[in-house]
Design brief:
The chain is α/β, with parallel strands linked by helices and 263 residues long. It is built from 9 helices and 14 strands. 38% of the residues lie in helices and 21% in strands. Bound molecules: adenosine-5'-diphosphate and N-acetyl-L-glutamyl 5-phosphate (X2W). It is an enzyme of class 2 (transferase).
């Protein structure tokens, strides 16, 4: 029997921070047919909240060093303010969303990142068993649309901050046993660009081997490195298709641009 389709969409902090862009994104997302899951970031808002409270952000390789004060801020921002606003906006668009952190329903259990050369603090790493597939499947089966934020837990009272691109990839991989999955990374640019300043320089397809080359050439940098790393991890582990680009081009029917990843 053919598997049902499931679309996992990740939306990044630059879109979430722009109320007009967010409105149009949620409009497109709510119209998406079939089973779907939304994962949102919000790094930009957390950074601004931190700065206003006198806490300077520290990022290493696209991941936030999360001390106890930063954990409080990201929990308020991701699991509170952003998650609940996104859910309320989806409800207004007749999309029956349910907002979740990884602690809710034990849906995403993580392990605090071990200290090697860098102590990331309360940052959670995911493994193959982190995602509660049956629970998420149960939510989908009663017609709910799960909306995950970037907060996970360790099962022993500790909340952890986990990169939202990683969460989206891990959910897509875990759900691939039961569904034909498509993972879509929506952000403010038209795709992976040859020249970050030029929106007309979209690289339409990237193969796994090309990624290393693009990194070496400095074509991809910053947050794009972990995004592509997670995206290739997904395609290697059973996800049928991965796209990176703008929501209006990737979620609307008939539109198919942005960057497609190839094994
Ligand atoms: N080649 C590239 N193409 C597009 N964006 C790139 C590229 N290299 C670096 N970037 C940067 O990566 C950022 C996206 O990563 P990130 O901020 O983590 O995404 P998100 O908004 O989804 O959280 C872009 O805003 C851009 O500044
Ligand atoms: C550990 C870690 O880096 N967590 C991320 C989670 C949010 C996120 O991923 O937000 P964007 O998608 O908007 O970048 C952070 O705090 O920035």
């Amino acid at each position: 029997m053919e598997k049902e389709t499931l679309t996992i969409v990740k939306i990044g902090g630059n879109v979430i921070d722009d109320s007009e862009k967010l409105h149009y994104f949620l409009e497109d997302f709510s119209k998406l047919k079939g089973a779907k899951i939304l994962v949102h970031g919000g790094g930009k808002i957390a950074t601004e909240m931190g700065i206003s409270l006198g806490i300077e952000p520290k990022m290493v390789d696209g991941r936030r060093i999360t001390d106890i004060q930063t954990l409080r801020i990201v929990t308020m921002a991701y699991a509170g303010l952003i998650n609940k606003n996104v859910v309320a906006q989806l409800q207004a668009k007749n999309c029956n969303a349910i907002g979740l952190s990884g602690a809710d329903g034990n849906t995403i259990r993580a392990v605090k990142r071990p200290v090697k050369t860098i102590d990331y603090g309360f940052v959670g790493d995911l493994s193959e068993t982190s995602i509660a597939v049956d629970t998420i499947n149960g939510l989908l089966n009663i017609g709910l649309v799960p909306v995950f934020c970037a907060i996970t837990h360790d099962g022993d009272t500790q909340l952890l901050n986990t990169n939202a691109d990683t969460i989206a990839s891990a959910i897509a991989v875990a759900m691939s046993a039961a569904y034909t999955t498509t993972l879509v990374y929506c952000f403010e640019k038209k795709g992976v660009l040859r020249d970050v300043e030029d929106d007309n320089s979209v690289v339409s397809e990237i193969r796994m081997g090309q990624f290393e080359q693009l990194k070496e050439e400095g074509v991809v940098s910053g947050g794009m490195i972990p995004k592509l790393h997670n995206a290739f991890e997904a395609i290697r582990s059973g996800v049928s298709a991965v796209y990176i680009g703008q929501a209006e081009e990737l979620l609307r029917e008939g539109q198919q641009s942005g960057t497609r990843l190839i094994k």
